[in-house]
Amino acid sequence: MDFKQLEAFVQISKLQSFSKASEALFLTQPTLSNQINILEKEIGTQLLVRSTKKIYPTKAGVKFYEHAQNMLALRDQSLFEMGKFTKECAGEINILASSVPAQYLLPQLISDFNKEYTNIVFRLYQRDSGVVFEELSQYQYDIGFVGTETESSRYKLTAFCKDQLVLVLPKSMRYTGCRNASDIVSFISNKNFIMRELGSGTRAKMQLFLNQNKMYEKDMKIVAYFSSTQGIVEAVSKGLGISFVSKAAASIYKRLNLVNMVEIESEELSRDIFYVLKKDMILTPAQELFINYAKNYYKR
């Protein structure tokens, strides 16, 4: 068993394709196929299911993937410690993030990181917070970013920045009352409201605030359910209704003079944004550089 065989197996598993993996590793498909055949013979079991539509790991392959990824990470860490990696650190980072981090926080963070570390490639995938926790354990993803916590013991969550939910209104609508919770809830009670779908961290935080102030979904004038923050703010700007969204999202539309934004005096609408790592995961130098960069980014 050698590192080239492990790299081949990891890339094929991630990309679910021999052709895509061959492009990523700059090897021919026959060479990759031969490496996988040798690896499977050495281990004594089939690691990949080769179907006509896509390639994916067997049950044994999924288990072996964790070991292969950790062995490659240890190799890279060893090279890093020996001074082979500086600004030339290279690699790939696969991120699974909920909508607010994916759309409004990570693009700027990754852009600034790329100015210093130009040889690290990112793949960014978006899901609801609940789905992030369900899918992050799969082999395709390295790091998660979410706006809510989980009770799962499979992950380690670390807060790296703060977010706040704000009320967004169409430009034709004004709010002139107090910014306290009770007045805001009274204002909402007879207005068309746009709700996020189940599984969203924004919805969980919003519902907690409303329920603690004696307002429940069954009592609201909900006119639509949207699956994305951007879709909600767009709908608000068109006059469909009002809603709570991340301040990071609302601020962009406020600067463009497309919506009105109301900041509310309530800690209940403040939340942490977390990065999520699988427990016992060994980070590659590229992943560790990015995590450390993210931790310090919002302290500046």
UniProtKB/TrEMBL annotation:
- Superkingdom of this entry's organism? Bacteria
Keyword Ion transport (UniProt): no
Q: Does the keyword Transcription apply?
A: yes
**What are the entry keywords?**
DNA-binding, Transcription, Transcription regulation
Q: Name one GO molecular function term.
A: transcription cis-regulatory region binding
Q: Name one Pfam family in it.
A: LysR_substrate
Q: Where is the HTH lysR-type domain?
A: 1-58
> Of which family is this protein a member?
Belongs to the LysR transcriptional regulatory family.
Protein's recorded name: HTH lysR-type domain-containing protein
Provide the species name: Lacrimispora algidixylanolytica
The organism's taxonomic lineage, starting at the top: Bacteria, Bacillati, Bacillota, Clostridia, Lachnospirales
